[in-house]
Amino acid sequence: MKYDIDYYENMLRIYSKTAETISRIRWEWIGEVSPKKVLDYGSGVGWFRAFRPEGVYVDSMDIGPYPQKGISCEHYDVVCFHDVLEHMKSFDEVKRIFETATYVAGTIPVVPANKDVTVWKHYKPGEHLRYWSEESFEADMSSEGFKKVKHGMPECPPRTDILSFLYKKWGR
């Protein structure tokens, strides 16, 4: 998958109608921790920042060509990875970012029990580099020093097989 300007323009055309709905669901999901400083890592075209609650500062970072705020803070109340982590071979790529967070939130596709991954909607070789169940994701986050606050599927519908998560860094 090539993440270039054509990719992002296509995403805007296809998904703009549900972007506000999904962004609001995501803000409600992390609302219980009352974040004031948030990093949207893998921000895409910036919907999450665009629909932020009043009084919340949001930095955004992505590999794509659209304007981003960048990473300007040494610490964030919440670092968000919406539809990002499955594109990485390992958490080594974001360990430094994990260290800036009190909480880590986001979304990943999760393989349903007894589902052949090769016929699953989210099976995308070359684009999705990792596949998790809820249990395997929790184990990976625990190994990085995070404790689960909650898992759920508030974005389903309109999406399918998408796990939302919120973790807190041990000792923070």
Structurally, the number of domains stands at 1
Beta strand count: 6
- What overall geometry do the principal axes of the alpha carbons give? globular
Gap from first CA to last CA: 37 Å
The Cα radius of gyration reads: 15 Å
Q: Please, how many helices? A: 4
The neighbouring-strand order within the major sheet is 2-1-3-4-6-5
**Uncertain stretches of 5 or more adjacent residues:** none
At the first level of CATH, the class is Alpha Beta
CATH topology: Rossmann fold
Report what the structure shows.
The protein has 172 residues and is an alpha/beta fold. The protein has one domain (5-169): Vaccinia Virus protein VP39 (Rossmann fold, 3-Layer(aba) Sandwich). It is 26% helix and 24% strand. It has helices at 5-30, 47-50, 95-98, 134-143; strands at residues 37-41, 57-61, 76-82, 101-109, 146-152, 162-169. It has a 6-stranded mixed β-sheet, sandwiched between helices. Strand 3 (76-82), helix 3 (95-98) and strand 4 form a beta-alpha-beta unit. The longest helix is centred in the N-terminal third of the chain and has 26 residues, at 5-30.
